[in-house]
Amino acid sequence: MPAKPANDFPVVALGGSAGALEGFESFFQHLPIGTGMAFVVVPHLDPSQKSMMTEIIQRYTPLPVVQITDGMQVEPEQVYLVPANKETSIERNTFRLHEPERPNGQRMPIDYFFQSLAVNRREQAIGIIFSGMGADGSLGVKMIMENFGMVMVQEPTTARFDSMPRNAIKTEFVDHVVPVEEMAEKLMAYTHLPSIKGKTAVDTHKSSQMLQKVFSLIRNKTGHDFSLYKRNTIYRRIERRMNTHHLHKFSEYINFLEKNPQEVELLFKELLIGVTKFFRDPEAFQVLKERYLPALLKEKKDGETVRVWVAGCSTGEEAYSIAILIQECLAQMENAPQVKVQVFASDIDQAAVDFARAACYQENITADVSPDRLSRYFTRVEGHYCVKKELREMIVFAVHNLNRDAPFTKLDLLTCRNLLIYLSSDLQKKLFPVFHYALNPNGLLFLGSSETLSGYPDLFTPIDTKWKISRRNETSYPLSRMVDFPFTFTSIETVKPFPEPNQLPDKKDMNLGPLIQRVLLQQFAPPSLIINAKGDIFYIQGRTGRYLEPAQGQATLNVFEMAREGLKFELNNLINKANTLKEPFSVEQVRVQTDSGEQYIKLSVTPLQEPAPLKGFLLVVFEDLPTPKFRHRKHKALDLASPPDSRVAELEKELLFTKQRLQSTIEEMNSSLEELKSTNEELQSANEELQSTNEESMTNKEEMQSLNEELMTINLQYQTKTEELTNSNNDMKNLLDSTEIATIFLDNNLNIKNFTPQATHIFNLIRADVGRSISDIASSLKYPSIVEDVKEVMEKLRPKEVHLQTKDEQQWYSMRILPYRTVDNFINGAVVTFTNITAFKNLEASVAATSLYAANIIDIIQQPLVVLDGQLRVECASNAFAQTFQLIPEQLKGQWLFHLGNGQWDIPALKERMNQVLLEGKEMKNEVLEHEFPVLGYRRMVLNTRRVEQTENKPFKILMALEVFER
Length: 967
What we know:
This is protein-glutamate O-methyltransferase. By secondary structure, the chain is of the alpha/beta class. It has 7 domains: 11-191, Methylesterase CheB, C-terminal domain (Rossmann fold, 3-Layer(aba) Sandwich), CATH 3.40.50.180; 208-271, Chemotaxis Receptor Methyltransferase Cher, domain 1; 282-482, Rossmann fold; 512-627, PAS domain (Beta-Lactamase, 2-Layer Sandwich), CATH 3.30.450.20; 634-715; 740-836, 2-Layer Sandwich (Beta-Lactamase), CATH 3.30.450.20; 847-966, Beta-Lactamase.
């Protein structure tokens, strides 16, 4: 068998800060031997203090625990500790240590290592977030998820400090949120999945049709089509979802999707995973700022606009980064032009766009944004950094689909970074002409470092091959050859996150009696208790008065406070062991002082695992034992007369038991001492953070005062906008009334939103009908219902026009239905207009009657007569003409004069005369024309013509009458 690659094993990174030491200890206590994984602990440590973390963790795991050094190889079945004074990364199965670029308070060691781990180990990367303050690790879990790894987070309610776990959960890039005790089980289940073992859960050769089914389900649910995304990416995302639900066959997952609409939404979010950060690839942004942006800005004149499009902006960090660069370039330029900067940032994900619009980011951005930029462009508010108003107003965020929606145009810079790598080559070739069309001449295209120009190499000239910056070329290709027009405009229904599952009821509120009685009757008969790990009593079985008694003071049901003399120590010891190791423990010959004297008992404590409602509880059983024989002797003399060996053995047994209890107490005390030392270090660190927070609060107070003044100014602006809106509303009302067109506005549920006064002439409407369905309103139209027509227009997004007559047959209306589009191009109902076309219908009937009258006149004439249009095509002809020349009357209309009779009328002399009629306006009078017809033979014809001019710029007609003579 081929040997496994050296790096073919998972690497588990454990990140935490304040309060995480307890989590680390519990994690390694529950970790089985032989996992085949490497473990890297990434804590927040004070570089000025000596850390004892390595020795502390070593107590709870048989695996070797070492501190990382530069160049150290990563090996399975090892625990590595990240040093406090270095930035740690992993490169090709080797640890690398780097000098920190940020001061101690601004470092994000968890994010730094997680990102490195994600890039180098991909699906073999596993990240776990434990207790801690702040948001370190939130960006790292996104990177791990983007590279198909696995992420776990400690259940926040079990963490001493829940800020770090909750911030990680907010990213929505988390596979499991579990207590620390269950993490080892989840790890082992994940490493046994097919995709982790090197197998593929999805057979790409047999799943094409099933994949189309997945695309159809997503398209029907969200309106987005992923059929042009790269297949490998799609399969890996689907595998992740299959692994989450422990499904091994693609067909099983298809069935699961069809039965669970919420899973379709989760898969959609999985496919939209967008990992970004401020100034991603800092060197690329530095090159853009120093070399190319200044030249671009110098070409601008005062009053002009610099237009930028950030395509695939995700949560907006890149858009704000570009805006910051432009601001800095303008500030550094001499004689900088007075230009307006407009940045368009778009993404397919509505939730990501909403987050970007809010413009508030977690405090872990300090790892990517310099302190100078933070102070200049951000404001710190309640543990977040919010973008300042002047920078936020430069950017417009929009939901936009590159494959479907029209592009932003007249751009000076277009950035599309780390998006094309997920798209198929066909879709990439379609997008590059779109980018070329959107850019101004010499505009810049900025791609990700892993993306390349393909398909149209003559559209762009690479000017920086390393960081994929290109300049737009002029091309002679027709626009229609390059860009796939037209783009369609359809609204996308916002994907609503499905509700979280209901929380389980509190165990105290559950009816545990029947369940507990069943367990007790099946296993035990002696007096027993059901308690939790804190000793609180939930249920009592049998008579327990000999072992427990109420304590003085406020009434309580705690077993430690109610235990009789001689029982408390053993009870505390057994409960701690059973709760920690999840195993039953018992001890015999426990002497208890009862009301009737001493009693020896057997004490047992068993952790309960089933049924499910009792999981986590402990069963305490008291069993009476007979008193040892030497205790029944009535006289001390008899005791002294007992065999010496028996007495010595008893004393040695008691001494051994006492030593064991003393050793256990010493070990527990040492462990508590180490925990207290660690807690003291964490408290010192927390104290420094609180001092820093206090200084920031004082600064925030001044900023709040300034912000209050800004809000007052904004309030005045809103008042002005309100007045303008009122005036616009009045203008719109007068405009609608003046058109005299009946108009009804409907919402998506076909309820009436508004209508013009003219609509009351057709429908029985009053103002109280606003909000009612249009189907409930009676109309004067001879038409069953307009509801189906409105639904058709809203589904197909195409206007529809129908001519309708009133029931009294006195009026005609043209009903036109159009989708109601908002300013953001969202469909929000329909607009139904009714235009009175009675006069037009009357005129149409009159014209039809006149035409029929003229046709009858022509038919009754016994002389051959033809009516021609301006191109000498037959409008109509008399029956005498058809009979004379043996033509079929039904085939005459629309034929060219010279094609009649299969070309028999192709007479040169006739053509010459008719051209004079057309071009010179001459009329033929008694013109004699002789011609030998192939079928009819010789005919002598006398022709007379007349041009009939029509009104309203309509083309003229020609009347041609003939007299025909045979030889």
